[in-house]
Amino acid sequence: MNPRVESIQAALEEAQLTLDELAALCGVQPGWVIERVEQGLIEVCGADFAAWRFDAATLRRARAMRGIELTFDAAPELAALVVDLTEEIGRLRALLADAQRSC
Question: CA-CA distances (angstroms) from residue 74 to 8, 65, 98?
Answer without folding.
Answer: 33, 9, 34
